[in-house]
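User: quick one - fold this with aspartic acid bound?
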Amino acid sequence: MKVLKFGGTSVGSAERMRALPALIQGSEPRIVVLSAMSGTTNALVNIAKLLFEGETTAATYQTEILRQHYLIVARELLTEPEVAAEAITHLDSAFKTIFNLTRHPLSASGERVILAQGELLSTLLFHRYYTRMLGQEAVLLPALDFMRLDKNDEPDGDYIEKHLAQALAPHAGQPLFITQGYICRNANGDIDNLKRGGSDYSASLIGAAAHAEEIQIWTDIDGLHNNDPRVVEGTYPIRELSFDEAAELAYFGAKILHPSSILPAAKHGIPVRLLNTMQPEAPGTLISTQTGDEAIKAVAAKDGLVAIKIKSSRMLLAHGFLRSVFEVFERYRTPIDMITTSEVAVSLTIDDSTHLAEILEELRSFGSVEVDEQQTIVCLVGNLIQENNGSAWLVFNALKDIPLRMISYGGSPNNISILIHTSHKQRALQALNEGLFQQRAVAP
Ligand code: ADP
Ligand code: ASP
Ligand code: MG
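Assistant: Sure. Structure tokens for the protein plus aspartic acid:
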């Protein structure tokens, strides 16, 4: 079994959907995981936002605009009028779900139902096209039957494995399954999702559950680049990354992958290939247990962090202080991303500031507390084993004109993290590109 995930741009128009069949051919069975068509989830987020703000007329209007867009795509893709008409009946029932939710004040669970429609629509259209227009065999598997969160809102691997197997069982010998990325049910059985960009995570979870031999993430770029191509010019794709390196880059901002998406594949040792639907012949990036031996391979940056410094003379020569600090974050279920300590102070960063006020209140009982918002972690990933000396020098030399708030080195053999103010991000990424990767960028 192989799992192939296609992102928003890869299914973003009738033309893009027509290009998929050529990419999903193969002798072994496949599960194709689709995102919503590009722009759809943003439009649904906006509709929900308007409803939360009480802007019902605007929300209804935006829903109708989206519906008209889908009617056009359906007619363009499904050129047999009878096939189009059938699909439009299904499209209309998805839109009716949204229109019905505009009639009453929107709840959080209503919002999640709205957000789920994008993947339901894209898979419906592609499945109809593949089976009815091309006459090929494929089974549409409803992700809501097997993708599940546990009571901690984490994917429930055992449930997913068992229920995916049950969903596949009646279709022995089927060459192709099509399912939705991103959407799932939560522990209460209500419709939920894996957060923005979550279709990558779906693909990895499905790959792990199906014991797939490979997971392919098809997107609009030729693999994971050495730096953020949205911010820096002259980036290039990295051919090979280890699971750990890719997981760090995904977690620390490489948008090509959902932050958690490498973990299920890594746990089961399933290689992940990042490929470009616009350039299918390009080798892309292979993520596996193997890696190249460059000291620094790539840089990613994650915005929206808050740095907190707790200064206390109680820390001096004391034990148990850090534990008390960490317990505060644990109580509020707030992960810490980066940490540095001195004998009298500890600085750490969080990216979830939901409980910031309560956390600060508790931390003040330990000593003085300083908070810096709008921070960005710049994460450098590679083979940073001690023997590869000189890498840190290259990094700090490149960043000599940038004020650095925190530095973390040695936490793992493949990461150096640096905290800067977000306003310096572009300059920092550009400087790192020039200082670390320029020769490679010229001659990859
Ligand atoms: P999809 O809709 O297929 O999931 P995404 O937009 O989520 O695609 O991810 C692909 C985009 O990620 C690229 O177009 C690129 O702009 C962005 N990106 C950010 N950092 C990186 C990186 N290090 N390597 C490759 N792409 C990156
Ligand atoms: N459609 C969802 C989003 O836009 C999930 C995904 O595309 O990965 O976030
Ligand atoms: Mg994505």
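One thing worth noting: The first strand starts at residue 2 and ends at 6.
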